[in-house]
Amino acid sequence: xxxxxxxxxxxxxxxxxxxxxxxxxxxxxxxxxxxxxxxxxxxxxxxxxxxxxxxxxxxxxxxxxxxxxxxxxxxxxxxxxxxxxxxxxxxxxxxxxxxxxxxxxxxxxxxxxxxxxxxxxxxxxxxxxxxxxxxxxxxxxxxxxxxxxxxxxxxxxxxxxxxxxxxxxxxxxxxxxxxxxxxxxxxxxxxxxxxxxxxxxxxxxx
Length: 206
Known about the structure:
The protein is α+β, with helices and mostly antiparallel strands. The protein has helices spanning 4-36, 42-68, 151-161, 177-181, and strands at residues 79-87, 91-93, 96-98, 100-104, 113-119, 122-127, 131-134, 165-173, 188-196, 203-205. The strands form 3 sheets. Strands 1-8-9-7 form a 4-stranded mixed beta sheet. Strands 6-5-4-10 form a 4-stranded mixed beta sheet, with no helix packed on it. The mean pLDDT is 92.
């Protein structure tokens, strides 16, 4: 069973507790005004502040765990990594043979390159945010070097396919209590595609 149920319960309880605090403050303030005609009482104000701090810290913690907690894909206690390698299929365009078709976007301050490739008679597309092309002597290029690749697996695939394969890394959150509190247990954390080609000429640009 996934620990995400703990996250859902914690989210519901944190929201209910925050609503309770608001209701508590409103009721006691109305009672204070009705009984004493005063707006401020020190003991009540201290109680209000403590309750608000607890409720806001709880909500803030849930927001951080769910939306803002960065994933460390190199931390194998938090994530698990799998790598799938498939040989690339050659395509052609106007008598120009290639393994990868690169398309540059012309809009935005930081144009994105999309990569289209074929493997197993299926067409796939990724972009420069979640993938890169390796066409040099190094199998793992600089863009992908920070990721936890299995170098021996890539070397075997490189030799078997003649330097033409797609390596897709899938990173999933492990089923831990902390990941469950963030509603991330067993869910996808990141996907990265390394496209290995024999030479730059095997990438067709448009």
